[in-house]
Amino acid sequence: MTWIEKVIEGSIRNRLMVVLITIVVVALGIRAMLTIPVDAIPDLSDVQVIVIADYPGQSPQVVEDQVIYPLTTALLSVPYVKDVRGYSFFNFGMVYLIFEDGTDLYWARSRVLEYLNQAAERMPTGVTPRLGPDATGLGWVYEYTLQSDKHNLAELRSIQDWYLRYELQTVPGIAEVASIGGFVKQYQVTVDPDRLASLGIPLYRVKAALASSNLDVGGRLIEMGETEYFIRGLGYLRGSEEEIVDQIGKISLETTPGGRPILLKQVADVSVGPELRRGIAEWNGEGEVVGGIGVIRWGEHALAVIKAVEKKLESLKAGLPEGVEIVPAYDRSALILRAIATLREKLLE
User: How far is residue 47's CA from residue 284's CA, in Å, rounded to a whole number?
Assistant: First the structure.
């Protein structure tokens, strides 16, 4: 008797057991079909960790010499790293660490953090390397734009940066929400070097005065009548844009021999303006817009995360100013659903 005959004979004798096993297998199959992560674009990228370091105002050569080279040499000895690649740009640099296949991503990120702590002492003043998001190049799954006839690009960018971005980062599976387009608002101080030189004030004094005039300081306690009172010095700039500009202009730099203060507005022009930008976001040739990009974590269920992002955006619409609307620009779920429909159709054929 062959083994096939034995299996058939055993199945006939244990019909109930065969039925139970069949039910269990079918139930497990249905559960797997409903829970398995589905994506139209398989992520076959290497296990990688990205280190980013900002060095404002510096050329790519300076970034390479003072930041990227010390970082790459310090990270060469990270365990299971097979390749370290450094890239230098104006204002910032990046280091890509490619790990051996099978390395756990979060173990790799923790080891890179350990080595970054050792490399921190070799960095220039003010440069603090940080890890990039725990995502890959295929993590870009959803994009939306903010459009309004009543708000300018700077106002829309502030809504994106200070409201939508933080709320969307709470969605499970989201690694990063990147902002694109619009203008980042700044309070800009344009110093007149001739007026500064005529008063004998060095430029660093302006920087120091600005830093020291926009902070709160804490003191100790005073106890009166069995009650403790906190002593604080309130110095943050507050109010509308016009009020803050006026407050900045009234910052004292020095005093004259006669005791009169020299104010910042005497040597500089204070205004509200946009930060320097190196790109724009355009909507179908109709003009500039502000947008956000949702990037999912490595290994997450793309379709489930997209649905969660859409649900979150729907709930956030109630908090938007009047006239501001969220318009989807890219949604990978449509591609995923079409791929599933095509697969189902071919399997049924």
Answer: 35
**What pLDDT score does 88 carry?**
96
Environment class of 339 (CB within 10 Å of its CB; exposed 0-12, middle 13-18, buried 19+): middle
* Cα 289 to the center of its chain, rounded Å: 19
Residue pair 135/299 in contact (Cβ under 8 Å)? The answer is: no
**Mean confidence (pLDDT) of the chain:** 90
Q: What is the pLDDT of residue 218?
A: 83
* 7 is a domain residue: no
Task: Say yes or no: 178 and 322 in one domain.
Answer: yes
125 three-state secondary structure: coil
Quick one: pLDDT band at residue 35, thresholds 50, 70, 90?
Answer: confident
**Residue 246's beta-bridge partner residues?**
none
| Mean pLDDT computed over 236-249 | 92
Say if residue 171 is in the same domain as residue 196.
Answer: no
Do 107 and 149 fall into the same domain?
no
- Residue 96 has phi, psi (to 5 degrees) of -100, 125
DSSP secondary structure letters along 224-280: ETTEEEEEEE-----SSHHHHHHHHHT-EEEE-TTS-EEEGGGTEEEEEEEPP-S--
The pLDDT of residue 314: 95
